[in-house]
Amino acid sequence: MAGNLFRSEEMSLVQLYIPLEIAQPTVSELGELGHVEFRDLNPNVNAFQRAFVNEIRRLDEMERKLRFLEGQIHKAEVPVRSMDSSLYYGRSRTQQEIDELEERLNDHDARVQQMNTSLETLNKRYLELTELRHVLRETAIFFDEANTRTDDILGGTHREDTHLLAPGGTLEQPDDNEAVERGEGALRSANLGFVAGVIPRGRMGTFERILFRALRGNLYMNYAEIDEPIVDPITDEVVQKNVFIIFAHGAQLLAKIKKICESMGATVYPVDERSEKRRNDAQEVLGRLEDLKHVLDSTRNQRRIELAKVAENLESWSTVVKKEKAIYHTMNQFNYDQNRKALIAEGWCPTLSINAIQYALRGVTERTGATVPPILNEMRTVLEPPTFHRTNKFTVGFQEIVDAYGVAAYREVNPGLFTVITFPFLFAVMFGDFGHGIFVTAFATWMVSQEKKLEKKRWGEIWSTFFGGRYIILLMGIFSIYTGLIYNDIFSKAMNLFGSGWEFHKHGEKWYGEKKWTYVFGVDPAWHGSDNVLLFTNSYKMKMAIIFGVMHMSFGICLNVCNFIYFNKRLNIYTDFLPQIIFLLSIFGYLVILIIYKWATYWPDASLAPGLLNTLIYMFLSPGNIGQKDLLYKGQAGLQGFLLFVAFVCVPWMLFAKPYFLKKEHEKRGGLGYAGLSDENLNDPTAAGFTSGPGDNRPSEDGASSGAGHVEVASSGHEHFDFGEIMIHQMIHTIEFCLGAISNTASYLRLWALSLAHAQLSEVLWTMIMGNVLLMEGAVLPIALVCGFAMWFVLTVGILLVMEGLSAFLHALRLHWVEFQNKFYAGSGQKFQPFAFQTILADTEE
Amino acid sequence: MAGVAILVTFILFALAGGTAFWFIPKSQDQILYRTALSLTLVCTWTMWAVTYLAQMNPLIVPERSFGHNPTGGHSNL
Question: What is its main location (chain B) (predicted)?
Answer without folding.
Answer: membrane
